[in-house]
């Protein structure tokens, strides 16, 4: 296992995308478990999906912050593509650790709305990298660790499973995947040129309470409740490595405290202090099995009636553009370096989602 080389106590942590699904859960976990931290959150609160869910997440953060007054929480509404704002935030708050989770997500949306991905995932991430670079100006200590979200989408239609960070990922099948691969390349270049310790995390199909409504489990629930037909792609033969949000957050937390070591090569120039890890459950689930467990837990939670005719509300259809038949994370490196492997079962995770859904929508 790698040894922790960053202490979060009494440090300022910048979390972009802080009202997002993963970001909000990370902020709450840090406030609960990490004493004496100063957390700055940035989010543009866009309407890609229901803003009321983002507002609810922020309310939950405020509650947790109120219960843990030995730490500081500050929220800034803004876009990471706004260079002036990012430079001002870095200048004023001087974050020691940066966790970049702000991004335009979604494979299918990237096919019809590419501008949003270039703005947030390319320009926005470039602004973060530049701010990290200049945090060292005039001999300052600067950013000790940049942790950023990548995605399992970078593996594209890779036929070798499980997906390893050693695999070549040069054939993205969506613009979203291409922007995430670009993030990894940009981070590597900045690590090499400016000695910025950076770690990219390839997330595998994250789900859980207060998740993104564009994700399958959430969209299926909405449609079933409305009596609509749900479409199961690739005739149900797709497999996904579903990863519960608490496991993702635990992985991020551990990675934050272990920055890649700065060292020089034989040429006297920095060896890039750069790393990439998969965070996934390493247990791909067949989509038909997944929707069966989902409907069972929705019935159990009282979201759907006990006599719900599930069979008449599903339809098997062909593969969608940008989709891949399987995602499967090789997490050996994560286990070796951090002693951690996601463990939440799909049934337990979907049960918690169903219970949240019933409460949030007051069913």
Automatic annotation (TrEMBL):
It holds the Pfam family Epimerase. The keyword NAD applies. This is NAD-dependent epimerase/dehydratase family protein. Residues 13-265 form the NAD-dependent epimerase/dehydratase domain. Keywords: NAD. The keyword DNA repair does not apply. InterPro entries: Epimerase_deHydtase, NAD(P)-bd_dom_sf.
């Amino acid at each position: 296992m790698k040894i922790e080389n960053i202490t979060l106590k009494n440090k300022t942590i910048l979390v972009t995308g802080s009202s997002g699904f993963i970001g909000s859960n990370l902020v709450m976990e840090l406030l609960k478990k990490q004493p004496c931290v100063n957390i700055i959150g940035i989010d543009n609160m866009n309407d890609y999906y229901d803003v009321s869910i983002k507002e609810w997440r922020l309310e939950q953060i405020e509650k947790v912050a109120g219960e843990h007054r030995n730490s500081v929480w500050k929220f800034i509404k803004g876009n990471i593509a706004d260079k002036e704002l990012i430079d001002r935030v870095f200048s004023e708050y001087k974050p020691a650790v940066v966790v970049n989770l702000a991004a335009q997500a979604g494979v299918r949306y990237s096919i019809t709305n590419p501008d949003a991905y270039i703005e947030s995932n390319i320009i926005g991430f470039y602004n973060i990298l530049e701010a990290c670079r200049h945090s060292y100006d005039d001999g300052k200590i600067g950013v000790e660790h940049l942790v950023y979200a990548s995605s399992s989408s970078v593996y594209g239609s890779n036929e070798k499973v499980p997906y390893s960070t050693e695999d070549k990922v040069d054939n993205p099948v969506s613009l979203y995947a291409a922007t995430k691969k670009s993030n990894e390349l940009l981070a590597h270049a900045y690590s090499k040129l400016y000695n910025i310790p950076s770690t990219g995390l390839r997330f595998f199909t994250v789900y859980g309470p207060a998740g993104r409504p564009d994700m399958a489990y959430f969209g299926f629930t909405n449609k079933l409740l409305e009596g609509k037909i749900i479409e199961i792609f690739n005739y149900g033969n797709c497999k996904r490595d579903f990863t519960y949000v608490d496991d993702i957050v635990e992985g991020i937390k551990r990675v934050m405290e272990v920055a890649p070591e700065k060292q020089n090569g034989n040429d006297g120039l920095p060896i890039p202090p750069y790393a990439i890890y998969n965070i996934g459950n390493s247990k791909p689930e067949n989509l038909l099995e997944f929707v069966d467990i989902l409907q069972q837990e929705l019935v159990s939670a009282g979201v759907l009636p006990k006599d719900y005719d599930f069979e008449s509300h599903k339809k098997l259809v062909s593969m969608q553009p940008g989709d891949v038949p399987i995602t499967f994370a090789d997490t050996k490196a994560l286990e070796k370096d951090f002693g951690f492997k996601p463990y939440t079962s799909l049934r337990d995770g979907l049960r918690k989602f169903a219970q949240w859904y019933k409460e949030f929508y007051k069913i």
